[in-house]
Structures are given as structure tokens and as C-alpha cells.
Specification:
By secondary structure, this protein is α/β, with parallel strands linked by helices. It has helices spanning 5-8, 38-51, 66-75, 88-97, 106-109, 112-125, 140-143, 150-167, 182-195, 211-227, 245-255, 278-289, 342-352; strands at residues 12-14, 17-19, 26-30, 55-59, 80-83, 101-104, 128-134, 173-178, 202-203, 233-234, 264-267, 297-301, 316-320, 324-329, 332-338.
Length: 353
């Protein structure tokens, strides 16, 4: 079989995390604390790492942020990416302060001489660079072209930047080309995977919205691309506490069978046959599972129609009747418990796995 696109990309190392080359899709998010407050930023980095981030991005908006950014890099449990806009000198300072990767949009950094200075600094430090092209900040000459669609403009701008970096001998590149439109995102990344099959791609739907809308748009857009073998690292962008983002990434990856982190809850939507408080049961089990790191599936089914038969591939589960639950393991019933004892019984079985 022909290799998937993500298996064909060259590996790029961000600290100890490999992006591309068939490595697992890396999960990212970004802090929202003032970077000048190193303690607060480092605390949020640790929260994001605990929530499942492999890599965390931190903005460096001005010179005052450089020194505390260095503190974050030195003490972080995961590699840190410096997010830079407009000022190439901040990119150079950030990489010298310890950034494992820079995220820049060459279109707003300025002249090619300034871009080259950033490339040289990253090369000397052994840092990677994500070329981040956004629909709202395209190269001006490309943005003005009426003969190109938005995806074509994003791709043209991306190709221009990647070719320049590679001509200078810098290949530790990750590329993103983001838009808030899901169809534009799909068209753009599909084209990039054809035009630049060797370059690892960072996936994201930018400005996706609040938790519900942003989760839906990201799950649709990123899920489709990942299922096609496109994408080596990802961020779900939500207008919310950034700690909300990694679980959505992991949910997408787990739904596609690409990565597992902790348990998966399988539960039916309830119907007129349900004779227990299934919603309450499922919520209680979900809450208890937060303390579990086993990559298992747990089923909470409302009646015998949906379980254990339809959930027989779950590692452990329960099929409920009138005020009772039949606890099963891989489809085999092992005991009957009253409704009040279902959650504890499930957790006891999980502990035995």
C-alpha cells in the first residue's frame, strides 16, 4: 500500500517531540497569560501539558517578554514555541532564549533580509520554524490577485515561503495555512499535501469560535483531513480557557483511532425503553474516568437492545434494566447490581483491568 501523506513527510524535531515522518500526530495549544508573568505562564503550560499537550506555544509580543519567556522555556515540561509577529528581532531573541520552535508569518515579518536573519538564528540554535500563513495576513501581492481563490492564495503564499527557506538550506519547517472556513481549510490543506508532500503540516481552523461551535468546526475540518492522512500536528482553537483545547484534539484523534489517551466512554442516547437515570449514570462515570489513564473503552448502555451485544467490544460496560445493571466485560455478563451501585461496580471492574 502507498504510504499515507503524514508518513511521507520528513521528520522535524521540536525539542524531544518529532513532527512528521510518520510520528504520532502531536497535540498543541497556546497560553493566554501575559508572558511577562513567567510564573503564571509556566503554571498554564503545566496545566496544558497535564491536559495532553505535547507542545505549547507562547506569545512573545515585545522585548519585555523575552527574559520571562526564557524562564518558561527552561522550566517547561514540554517544548515551547515562540509566537512572533512583525518584529524579526523578537524572533531572534526568542530562539536565543530557548525556543524549541518559532512560529512566524513571513508575510508580516518584513523584508526577505529580515526573514533570512530569523532563519539563520534558528539554524544556529537548532530550532525549527513553523511558517504560519493565515487568510487574514497574506502576502500583499498575492492577496490582491483576483484570479485566485482563497485556497489558491494560501497555497501560493505557502509555496513561496517554503521554497525560499529551502533555497537557504533550512528544512526544519512545519507549515500551516489557516482560515476560519472549513471548506477553505480542506481545499487548502489537500492542495498543500499534493504540492509539498515532504513538509509536515500543522492543522487548525483559525478563529473557530466558542467551545461548541469551535469544537464542531474543528472536528469536521481536522477530522476529515486526518482521516485522509493529512496533518502531522494540530491545535483546536477555541475562544475559551486553553485547557479546553487538548481534550478536543484527543477526542478527534481517538475517534479516528490515531492516538489514545485515557479511557473512551461509549454510551447510548437513551430512549423510551430506558428505565434508569442513564444521563446521570453516564455523567457520573465520565467524571470518575477523569482519574483513569488506561486506554480502555467503557460502555454505559440504557437497555438490553444496545448492550452488551452492540457494545461487546468495550473492555467493560453495563446494560441497564428496571433499576438494575448487568455489568459485562467484552460482552460477557459477570454480575448484576442495583442502579445505585452501577458506577462503583464499573470502577471496580476497571481497576481489575
Amino acid at each position: 500500500m502507498e504510504k499515507l501523506t503524514r508518513e511521507r513527510t520528513r521528520p522535524v524535531h521540536v525539542g524531544g517531540v518529532q513532527i512528521g515522518g510518520g510520528a504520532p500526530v502531536a497535540v498543541q495549544s497556546m497560553t493566554c497569560t501575559p508572558t511577562t508573568d513567567a510564573a503564571a505562564t509556566l503554571a498554564q503550560v503545566r496545566q496544558l501539558a497535564e491536559a495532553g499537550c505535547d507542545i505549547v506555544r507562547v506569545s512573545v509580543p515585545n522585548q519585555a517578554a523575552v527574559e520571562p519567556f526564557g524562564v518558561v522555556c527552561r522550566e517547561s515540561p514540554v517544548p515551547i514555541v515562540a509566537d512572533i509577529h512583525f518584529d524579526y528581532r523578537l524572533a531572534i531573541a526568542a530562539v536565543r532564549a530557548g525556543a524549541a520552535k518559532l512560529r512566524i508569518n513571513p508575510g508580516n515579518i518584513g523584508s526577505w533580509d529580515r526573514v533570512d536573519a530569523v532563519i539563520d538564528a534558528a539554524g544556529e540554535a537548532g530550532a525549527a520554524i513553523r511558517i504560519g500563513v493565515n487568510a487574514g495576513s497574506l502576502d500583499e501581492a498575492i492577496a490582491r490577485r483576483d484570479d485566485l481563490t482563497q485556497p489558491e492564495k494560501l497555497v501560493a503564499s505557502s509555496l513561496q515561503f517554503v521554497e525560499h527557506f529551502e533555497r537557504r538550506g533550512f528544512t526544519d519547517i512545519v507549515l500551516s495555512a489557516k482560515a476560519h472556513s472549513v471548506p477553505t481549510t480542506l481545499d487548502t490543506y489537500r492542495a498543500l499535501s499534493r504540492e509539498l508532500p515532504h513538509v509536515p503540516l500543522h492543522l487548525g481552523v483559525t478563529e473557530a469560535g466558542t467551545v461548541q461551535q469551535g469544537t464542531i468546526k474543528s472536528a469536521v475540518g481536522l477530522g476529515i483531513l486526518l482521516s485522509e492522512g493529512i496533518g502531522d500536528t494540530m491545535r483546536v482553537s477555541l475562544t475559551a480557557d486553553p485547557v479546553e483545547e487538548p481534550p478536543v484534539c484527543w477526542g478527534i484523534l481517538q475517534a479516528l483511532g490515531l492516538r489514545r489517551r485515557g479511557p473512551e466512554l461509549v454510551s447510548c442516547p437513551t430512549c423510551g425503553r430506558t428505565q434508569v437515570d442513564l444521563i446521570g449514570l453516564a455523567e457520573s462515570v465520565s467524571e470518575r474516568l477523569k482519574a483513569c489513564d488506561k486506554p480502555i473503552s467503557v460502555a454505559v448502555m440504557g437497555c438490553v437492545v444496545n448492550g452488551p451485544g452492540e457494545a461487546s467490544d468495550a473492555d467493560v460496560g453495563v446494560a441497564c434494566g428496571r433499576g438494575v445493571g448487568m455489568v459485562f466485560r467484552h460482552g460477557e455478563i459477570i454480575r448484576k447490581v442495583p442502579e445505585a451501585g452501577i458506577v462503583d461496580a464499573l470502577m471496580e471492574e476497571i481497576d481489575r483491568l
